[in-house]
Amino acid sequence: MAKIKRSGIQFFSTVVSNGYFKGFMEGKVYAGPLKNACSPGLNCYSCPGALTSCPIGALQAVIGSARYWYSMYVVGILGVFGLVLGRWICGYLCPFGWFQEWLFKIKSRKCTLPSWTKKIKYVLLVVFVLLLPTLVTNVIGMGDPAYCKYICPVGTLEGGIPLILMNDFLKQALGFLFFWKLGILAMVIIASVLVYRPFCKVLCPLGAIYALFNKVSLYRYHVDIEKCVRCNRCAQVCKMDVVMYKTPNHTECIRCGDCKSICPTSAITSGINIDKAKSL
Amino acid sequence: MKKVQLGLFVVFVSLIVMGIMRGEATMVLEKAVRICLECIGIG
Predict the structure, then answer these.
(1) Number of folded domains in chain A?
(2) Mapping DSSP to helix (H, G, I), strand (E, B) and coil, where does residue A222 land?
(3) Chain A interface, mutation test: which of B8, B14, B16, B40, most A Cβ atoms within 10 Å?
(4) A255 in the same domain as A141
(5) Residue B22 at interface with chain A, using a CB cutoff of 8 Å
(6) Full pLDDT tens readout for chain A, 280 residues
(7) CA distance linking residue A62 with residue A59, whole number of Å
(8) Which domain holds residue A237?
(9) Which residues of B touch A173 (CB under 8 A)?
(10) d(CA A177, CA A254)
């Protein structure tokens, strides 16, 4: 039941985030006032259906501009999202996370990643999202959105492919960069069949930001030490490789709830600021 | 809401308000209403 509920929220979030259906038919992007706001999940604002802005794209747009070298607005929005929900957003609201989950359902051999690879997303956040757009600028002081330009497969999937299919002018402008990003997208797709949410674990700078909030977010997990029998089932079922009974608010936990469903003693609960007094 | 969370919440909401006042929301809108060539792998 919990899985159906989560899938329903993921579907709803994806449709709402990309609800400008006219854009898909005309090959244009939505240009209305909703794009002042950022979506909580990673959703490219050049997707023809996108109604809001991508927070990572927006952050780079502001700090890479000639006017500002830091962004109060986007940092504030990310802070509020992270503080209230943490990585629940990754588990429930991110369209690209949901896409990877579907790919993982394809029957194949499944693998896990070495734990050090999960640190890569923090390096990408600092170097490609924060430093390069600020420091590497052109003659008028503008920096490229380096993460969007060189790495982000979401832009290729949601924006690049549909727009290029519908726009002859863009088709003629294709070059090395597009095929580089297409290669990254292809690798993420293949990896997603073998590994659960590899992009979220390794490459997502938005996940890295929300991960930092998991320990202080209002929405949190709680393990009742009096009920927990340390059977380790929560750790075995966790596809994000979290040992829930030891670290209920781990940075990698996307709050999918699989551990809660499998716990034989119902020791794991979640909610807004639930009592931490008995937490492990 | 605990004190740390409340403090952070106030800080983040203040940042949003200050960001809007200095024109960042408009800048985000201006970027987002055009096709971002870098994002789609052309720019």
Answers:
(1) 2
(2) strand
(3) B40
(4) no
(5) yes
(6) 677 799 999 999 999 999 999 999 999 999 999 999 999 999 999 999 999 999 999 999 999 999 999 999 999 999 999 999 999 999 999 999 999 999 999 999 999 999 999 999 999 999 999 999 999 999 999 999 999 999 999 999 999 999 999 988 899 989 999 999 999 999 999 999 999 999 999 999 999 999 999 999 999 999 999 999 999 999 999 999 999 999 999 999 999 999 999 999 999 999 997 755 444 4
(7) 5
(8) 219-272
(9) 37, 42
(10) 32
